[in-house]
Design goal:
heterotrimer; A mainly alpha (685); B mainly alpha (262); C mainly alpha (234); A: 685 residues; mainly alpha; Cytochrome Bc1 Complex, Chain D, domain 2; 6 domains; 33 helices; 6 strands; B: 262 residues; Cytochrome Bc1 Complex, Chain C; 65% helix
Chain lengths: 685, 262, 234
């Protein structure tokens, strides 16, 4: 013990006995400690990942070439224009190695094929995360101000949406989400500014409530307000979770504020008689192709029909008979901007159709609703609620102004800082989670929140979240040259009497002309170059579909001869393509030899029958339209030009451009012009 | 024994080159050792001899020396950090990230600078209180105390200006909170605020201004005042010796009219 | 020059040990030599190597600390996102704590300016040079002044709800009361110690306590909206 202490003290004296010697000893200690810093560097995470990558490729067949392409050290993509410094490839070494397709362990997985080069855009622009970081935690999970954690893979399409304002084929979820953003009326309360300065425009068509009492009863409004989806499962109106008294007061206010309209009340005079045979109504409903726009729930519970107009399963519960008649006679007298065409029904047809629709009711719906007559206080309260809940953001209501900036701006929601978000207890701290929860259960985030409950599936919510996540700061600040603009509707308006007619018939609800209109039916911009007068006239008289597999069809609008001539003249005169010269391809004067040559080209060289049907007995192509009557429908000039380059006439046409030579195109045109078979059927009808 | 141990050093010190650099020459005599201090421009700030009691740890806790030590570390690490730093927005913050993730030992450098700066502020305060409680501010050392207060302010300003340079949220808001105080000065507050930041709020101008202050103006001021501080220690009669016998308080220092003759 | 000299001169004889010393003693005062001899050491190497040694030890500690703990780095500065709370560097948190109670012009301008002035004038202020215990002379009078000052200070602090600053004030006040009731002949060492302390000591001690408490509160116990939080419950 004594000796130990003695030796310790002697060592101590030897080392620290006088200041000079102690100075030397401590200097060495300081140097040793300083040397730890570079040593620590050497054992950094990215070094070990690069070593693991090297051992991964060592045993592979193409080890030599992989080894040659491997670059040690920090790998960096620097894009000063975008403010991007990405060092992801330091660890993710195999991103561009096609031969590593079988490696599924991160960080060495190969990047799926995308249209962009990885080093032109880096990683964080789409994936988020902190590109500058070289540690796993910092790169993927940083939540500091101005930094974002990695985006889950199912929201990756939002990355595309920052530049691409147009719909891409590779981003179905983003496209769907964007459609929903406009269609579900989100942007009627929220503002969503796009990088080009425009705002997302709502595409839904919420009805005006200024004359709502003409259309329906207070009891129905009450039931609807309580639960719109109980009336129609496809209703886009969200559920405001109103109390009974609030719903009662609002319904009282809406009815009391409604003003009667001349066109609606006139119909009351007409004596209403139910048709003897319900099948007559069903036939008319079918022939008018109401199902192209309106859905009905069938006995099996499936929703059948389009989603342009409201679901009609229980329309008999809603619409007053007198209103229904007036509506069917001319929808534009009640709502001048409705998407519904003005069918020229005869009074007889109106009676049949109204009877058919009024019979569509659920006798149990709304039976337990008993509303007492409203007091002025209740009506006043209803008006107050209407203003508070922002009903006027969507609907026109007498006495309530459309609110401005009613809900938070969503223009940069995709970059909302996590530090600014109040999460629900137990909720995952991420922006996608926050957005999707806000969509799915908006009222859970605190009492007094006004956002109503939408009925959306998980997939729909995810799509909508994708669209919202694309609204980032970066999308607003990036250089203009990187932006791909969306295709926007023009405000094209056809002129003259024909123009008025087309508005009345709501052609633009389905057809697109000169950049305006719906996408349900074919674009008619060059219809005048494309079809023959006789066919167009016949088609307007009695539309039949070109593609048998489609459910949505052109309805029969019961046009008069005069109206038809007006429309046909206008379309043939105005909707001409400058690229097509009708005189270059005469209708006749083709020798049978040329036709036969064309037939052979059609069947053997270009194998068109794989998509089209010319001979119904042998051909099985259903992708393209049936061509049995193409000779009496299309003009030869159009067919010729189409064969030469389909995409030049209709961008995005799926028919491949086969680089058909002039002679081949001419021969096939001659062959197709002989296909007039269906014209006989038209004549027969 | 010492000859063996310091053999190499002694031979080095005896060499022509060494002697051309250090005027004091070899030898361990009192004269040589005095010359080593006297003939050196830096060490000349110190007296050649000090009272033996003063080098005991308990007396000063070496707080002044430690403060100087942090200053040395800060100058060295600061110069190295300047090699990687651009005082511009937002490059300044990107440089922090580069230091952290790419520069060899960059994070270590920044850590050392940051922690040393905190240590310096703490040590300056500790030094001040220790000097006060030792009573070492009394005549004839009043003015050295005042210089010490100036150095305290310079230290705080150095730390404060350096705080903005990383350009992160912490920096931005700390400087915003701090600089807003200056605008509460009556009458000329807003002018001072504008002068301090080079604008009405913390922005790129403020960053550049703070950078120049932090890297040039304030360190130079600190070096000058540190030199004066040391020089005054010597001129004011070395470190203050506290009376070891507390009961003899009645004795007045002025009564002992003893002066040193250099 | 014919007048008699008013002093006698003496010379220190040990010239090898220290520089020559000359002493002049006037006739009106009686010389009292307090320290006859003081051991001295050479600055080089005794002091310089010790200083270098202590600096190196500090460097070792700081280097190890820097290897273990990373300096904080938040997200990039963003003028539109205010963190809550927005805190100044720790050494200013005492002032920021005061800012919570007093108008900015007081806490941000007046208090720091007065503090610096006070620090500057300390060595020039008469009371400080008088290094005798505060209550060893004029005890009653000084005690009365102290009570008035202490109570008014406490009332002032209470008026502005600065309860944080009250605690150190009370502690120092109690210590001063103990000092006033102690003498240099007190049997307890601590009481002898307190009794010997001058006014400047008490003021500085109060300042030190306040500085520590306010800074610690501002650093550790203040959360969003400058409300009280417990540091271990973050």
């Amino acid at each position: 013990m004594q000796s130990l202490r003695k030796s310790i003290s002697s060592v101590w004296r030897a080392l620290f006995g006088d200041p000079v010697r102690a100075f030397g000893v401590v200097s060495l200690l300081l140097l040793a400690v300083l040397a730890i810093a570079p040593a620590k560097e050497h054992f950094s995470e990215w070094h070990s990942y690069q070593n693991r990558y090297l051992s991964l490729i060592r045993d592979r067949g193409d080890a030599v070439s992989l080894r040659r392409r491997f670059q040690p050290g920090i790998q960096q993509v620097w894009l000063p224009q975008l403010g991007v410094v990405d060092r992801c490839a330091t660890c993710h070494e195999g991103l561009t190695e096609a031969s590593l397709a079988d490696v599924h362990a991160q960080p060495f997985r190969q990047h799926p094929s995308i249209p962009h080069k990885l080093d032109e855009f880096g990683c964080v622009i789409c994936h988020r995360g902190q590109g500058a970081a070289t540690t796993v935690a910092e790169a993927h999970q940083s939540e500091r101000a101005g930094e974002e954690p990695i985006l889950p893979a199912r929201y990756i399409e939002s990355g595309c949406g920052q530049c691409h304002q147009n719909a891409l084929t590779g981003t179905p979820h983003l496209n769907q989400g964007r459609v929903m953003l406009a269609r579900y009326g989100c942007v009627r309360c929220h503002t969503a500014k796009l990088p080009d300065g425009s705002t997302v425009v709502a595409t839904d068509d919420p009805p005006s409530l200024m004359h709502v009492a003409d259309k329906t009863t207070r009891a129905w409004i009450y039931s609807w307000l309580k639960d719109p989806q109980a009336y129609a499962s496809t209703a886009t109106m969200p559920n405001y979770k109103l109390s009974n008294s609030d719903a009662s007061d609002i319904s009282a206010f809406l009815v009391s504020s409604s003003t009667p309209r001349v066109g609606d009340t006139a119909a009351v005079e007409v004596k209403f008689t139910a048709p003897a045979d319900p099948a007559v109504g069903a036939t008319l409903y079918g022939e008018s192709f109401c199902a192209s726009c309106h859905a009905v729930q069938n006995a099996a519970g499936n929703i059948v029909g389009g989603n342009v107009g409201p679901e009609l399963t229980r329309v008999g519960n809603k619409a007053k008979p007198e209103w229904m008649r007036a509506w069917l006679e001319n929808p534009r007298s009640y709502n001048s901007t409705t998407l519904m065409p003005h069918y020229r029904f005869t009074p007889q047809q109106v009676t049949i159709m109204a009877g058919f629709l009024e019979a569509k009711l659920d006798s149990d719906y709304g039976t337990n609703v008993h509303l007492d007559a409203a007091t002025p206080q209740q009506i006043a309260h209803g008006k107050k609620l209407t203003a508070e809940l922002g009903c006027a953001a969507c609907h026109e209501i007498n006495g309530v102004k459309k609110p401005e900036n009613f809900a938070p701006d969503l223009s940069r929601i995709g970059s909302k800082a996590l530090a600014q978000i109040v999460f629900l207890p137990g909720m995952e701290h991420s922006l996608p989670r926050y957005i999707s929860s806000k969509i799915q259960q908006p009222r859970a985030f605190g009492p007094g929140l006004k956002m109503p409950q939408f009925t959306l599936t998980t997939a729909q919510t995810s799509d909508l979240t994708n669209a919202l996540l694309a609204l980032t700061d970066r999308s607003h600040t990036m250089p203009d040259m990187l932006r791909v603009a969306a295709v926007r509707d023009t405000n094209y308006q056809p002129a003259g009497h024909a123009g008025k007619l087309m508005a009345d018939l709501a052609c633009f609800s389905c057809h697109r002309i000169n950049g305006r209109g719906g996408d349900m039916a074919p674009d008619l911009t060059f219809e005048g170059s494309s079809v023959q007068r006789q066919w167009l006239d016949d088609f307007l008289k009695n539309p039949n579909t070109l593609r048998p597999s489609l459910i949505r069809r052109m309805p029969r609008l019961n046009l008069t001869d005069g109206d038809r001539k007006e429309l046909t003249d206008y379309m043939l005169a105005v909707y001409q393509s400058p690229a097509i010269d009708q005189d270059s391809e005469p209708l006749t004067t083709n020798t049978p030899a040329v036709v036969e040559h064309g037939r052979q080209l059609f069947y053997s060289r270009y194998a068109c029958q794989s998509c089209h049907i010319v001979d119904p007995k042998t051909d099985k192509g259903y992708i393209g339209p049936t061509l049995t009557a193409v000779g009496s429908r299309l003009t030869p000039a159009w067919i010729y030009a189409w064969l030469k380059n389909p995409q030049a006439l209709r961008p995005g046409a799926i028919e491949p451009n086969q680089n058909v030579s002039d002679e081949d195109a001419r021969a096939m045109t001659a062959f197709l012009m002989t296909q007039k078979g269906a014209s006989k059927q038209v004549a027969k009808r | 024994m010492p000859v063996q141990e310091y053999g190499i050093v002694e031979r080095l010190r005896g060499s022509r080159v060494w002697r051309s650099v250090f005027r004091s020459g070899t030898g361990t005599s009192t004269l040589h050792r005095s010359l080593a201090v006297q003939q050196n421009i830096f060490l000349h700030l110190f007296a050649t001899k000090v009272r033996k009691r003063m080098i005991r740890f308990n007396v000063t806790w070496f707080l002044g020396t430690l403060t100087l030590g942090t200053f040395f570390i800060l100058v060295i690490t600061g110069v190295l950090l300047m090699l990687y730093y651009h005082p511009s927005v937002p490059q300044a913050y990107a440089d922090m990230k580069d230091l952290q993730f790419v520069v060899s030992s960059g994070l270590f450098l920044r850590n050392l600078h940051r922690w040393s700066a905190q240590a310096m502020v703490f040590l300056v305060f500790a030094h001040m209180f220790k000097v006060f409680y030792r009573g070492a501010y009394r005549t004839p050392r009043e003015f050295n105390w005042v210089i010490g207060v100036v150095l305290l302010i310079i230290t705080l300003l150095l730390s404060y200006t350096g705080y903005l340079l990383p350009w992160d949220q912490l920096a931005f808001w700390a400087i915003t909170v701090g600089s807003n105080l200056s605008s509460t000065v009556p009458l000329i507050g807003n002018k001072i605020h504008f002068l301090l930041l080079g604008g009405n709020q913390v922005n790129a101008n403020a960053l550049l201004r703070f950078y120049v202050l932090h890297c040039v103006v304030l360190p130079l001021a600190a070096i000058i005042f540190i030199a004066v501080h040391f020089w005054r220690i010597r001129k004011d009669g070395g470190l203050y010796v506290q009376q070891s016998e507390p009961k003899m308080k009645a004795v007045d220092d002025a009564a002992l009219a003893t002066t040193e003759v250099k | 020059m014919s007048e008699p000299k008013d002093f006698i001169a003496g010379v220190d004889s040990d010239q090898r040990r220290s520089p020559t010393r000359v002493v002049f003693v006037t006739r009106r005062t009686s010389a009292q030599v307090k320290v006859t001899h003081e051991d001295e050491v050479q600055t080089f190497p005794e002091v310089l190597f010790r200083a270098a040694l202590i600096i190196e030890l500090l460097a070792v500690v700081l280097v190890v600390f820097s290897l273990l703990f990373n300096a904080p780095l938040e997200g990039i500065a963003d003028a539109s996102h205010t963190p809550n709370p927005a805190k100044a560097p720790w050494y200013f948190l005492g002032l920021q704590e005061l800012l919570h109670y007093f108008p900015p012009v007081v806490a941000g301008v007046l208090v720091p300016t007065l503090l610096i002035l006070a620090l500057v004038v300390i060595p020039y202020f008469d009371v400080n040079i008088e290094a005798t215990g505060l209550f060893l002379v004029h005890r009653q009078k000084r005690l009365r002044i102290f009570y008035v000052a202490a109570v008014s200070l406490l009332l002032f602090l209470m008026l502005f709800h600065v309860y944080v600053a009250v605690v150190p004030t009370v502690i120092v006040a109690i210590a001063i009361v103990i000092a006033a009731n102690s003498t240099l002949e007190s049997p307890h060492r601590f009481r002898r110690y307190l009794a010997s302390k001058p006014l400047a000591y008490w003021i500085m001690t109060w300042f030190l306590f306040e500085l520590i408490v306010l800074t610690a509160v501002g650093t550790f116990f203040r959360g969003p909206g400058w409300s009280w939080v417990l540091p271990w419950r973050s």
